[in-house]
Amino acid sequence: MTGPSMLPTLANSGEMVVENRWSYRCTPGKLQRGDIITLYSPLDRTRIVCKRVIGLPGDVICVDPTGQYTPSTEHVVVPKGHIWIMGDNADYSRDSRSYGPVSMGLIRGYLYARIWPLKDLTIFRNPTTYLDY
Predict the structure, then answer these.
(1) Alpha-carbon span 118 to 114, nearest angstrom
(2) 51, 80, 93, 103: the active-site residue
(3) Is 93 a catalytic residue?
(4) Would you identify the family this protein belongs to, as annotated (predicted)?
(5) CATH number belonging to domain 16-119
(6) Could you read off the pLDDT of 76-94 as tens digits, one per residue?
(7) How confident is the model over 100-131, as pLDDT tens digits?
């Protein structure tokens, strides 16, 4: 996977990551908003892309036709069996804003960790989860 769409979370290139395919296959219902996933590109099934889950089936997503983060009156309801994905670097990401909701059948797995370069070793945690005491 290369490209600027997941900056600053992931670099353009030169990183090694660990993908967890097993967990998603065993528990697909645990997919959450904020998860970083790998999937086959809806535009080219021979390419693997990495994006963040923004919407789950039944969610209402506000969509700006220009692809920017601006108030909008256009809405999309994510259909059953689909998700809404976006790159963290929205200005340089081809994602659901371009091709709409994505079939969950295209998902390969979760991005678990960055293991190279060692100075940037990271276990990816979902930023939308929290501990309730």
Answers:
(1) 8
(2) 51
(3) no
(4) Belongs to the peptidase S26 family. IMP1 subfamily.
(5) 2.10.109.10
(6) 999 999 999 999 998 899 9
(7) 999 999 999 999 889 998 998 888 887 765 54
